[in-house]
Amino acid sequence: MTAADLTITQAAAGLxxxxxxxxxxxxxxxxxxxxxxxxxxxxxxxxxxxAMAAAAESDRRHARKDPLGPLDGIPIALxxxxxxxxxxxxxxxxxxxxxxPPYDATxxxxxxxxxxxxxGKTNLDEFAMGSSTENSAYGATSNPWDxxxxxxxSSGGSAAVVAAGSALGALGSDTGGSIRQxxxxxxxxxxKPTYGLVSRFGLxxxxxxxxxxxxxxxxxxxxxxxxxxxxxxDPRDATSFRGEYPNFSDAIGRxxxxxxxxxxxxxxxxxFEPAVEAACSSMLDRLSATGADVVEVSVPTVDAAxxxxxxxAPAECSANLARFDGIRYGLRVSGATTxxxxxxxxxxxxxxxxxxxxxxxxxxLSAGYYDAFYGKALEVxxxxxxxxxxxxxKVDVLVSPTSPFTAFKMGDKSQDPLAxxxxxxxxxxxxxxxxxxxxxxxxxDESGLPIGFQVMAPALGEPVMYRVAAEVERLATFDARPExxxxxx
Amino acid sequence: xxIDIDIAHVARLARLALxxxxxxxxxxxxxxxxxxxxxxxxxxxxxxxxxxxxxxxxNAFRDDEVCPSLERAEVLAAAPEAREGYFVVPPALEGx
Lengths: 489, 96
Known about the structure:
The complex is a heterodimer of chains A (489) and B (96). Chain A has 489 residues and is of the alpha/beta class.
């Protein structure tokens, strides 16, 4: 145990009381990272100098008793698809090697303006496309619970650093489950907000109608705290939510008495590991015993959601990634004409999964196929939303396993795109609907690997989602930490 | 049945200069994925209108205010080739 093992809430109390300084805390976290990185490879870039300078500034504010809020002095990591002014941002792609953005993403601005210490940039599947963090041009990240296994993805680096104590919290992005699934596989809390609640300005786009930034933390309380810090209207994101919404931290600690919890019937049975089903079922019994009304609910379209997602996400990706043309930034491979230069640069710069999705999306949008594939997928999306709306007339939240299985071995699924796509079967529907979802660790399987429990809510239902998540956390009493070959024990 | 696609045409549309061998690999994989994705066609969607936005927002306007833009030198510094304030590219038209 060092300061690197504190929760954000504990560390914030220590900083506020003067019991420790941000310099001490940040050093403890960077020391931890220096040990764990040899095994994990969860960071692509560490900004030691920037972090220590930000910590020193935070200490001066705390000494004056004038901190910028609860995050002032707290070390936070960022997924490497969020632009950081002057600090390399690659989205784990060769096509962006060496790219130093001329601006900060809105979430980065917001964190800095509240005094957070940015530790560095974490590894991901290239352009956030994948579920294992194996599709990184800079090498895979390991799961802190077993380095031979994947941390999940695409935000695997952010999940791993929070699990290992090489940051107290981190931001990830979730297009089909890329925050919740790695959180489940790494035994931390990962949350995807309602679409539009957190600005996407400065997030390197994958699928714009699905992408959403959210927090990784070790506790539900920390999750709400970090979401409070990054949420809010941003005129630079045309899809940013303009309305009123409550403070999320206030939702925690009120229990689940009288709440109606719907168990998604479709997320069980074939393909779901028995240990995962047993842990979730035991949690449902405990929720019921503590006063919640637990009922089974059918959301029939969730089965077709995966098919719709693998048309919509690639379609949007093929449009978004057209910007990588070898002209304004990124890799250029020379050619006799602009078009030849573009085609060569893109073929050389994109990895296989990104290339596959660009081709898939281009096909689904091309003349003659648009109606049968992309158009039809958008109708299925509407059908799913109607299904969810009907379900939420009966229940306050929906629950399921976050992932059908615990962390799998590296290489197990990397040669089979369809098997990899099935990782996100429980998380994709929330993205298509624009709803919030959170994964909370509830136990370990027989191999000592974490199991995640998902709580979903309707749009802007974060308060009730956090209320249930906090109770799940309290009932699970999950306090195991990865030993990481003795490094963090 | 896997769906057969004209992969060379799709790669041209996507501006990806792939080898014959790569094209063949992607052709087979995409056929399998599309076979699965084609399940969307099995559903009766006559009761709904297609949606691309999860919350149904329309027309996001902001005030038309003058505000600073990015530093030109910093933006051009990220470009593979720039000269006198411009991005430099090879000829855009063949034979030009």
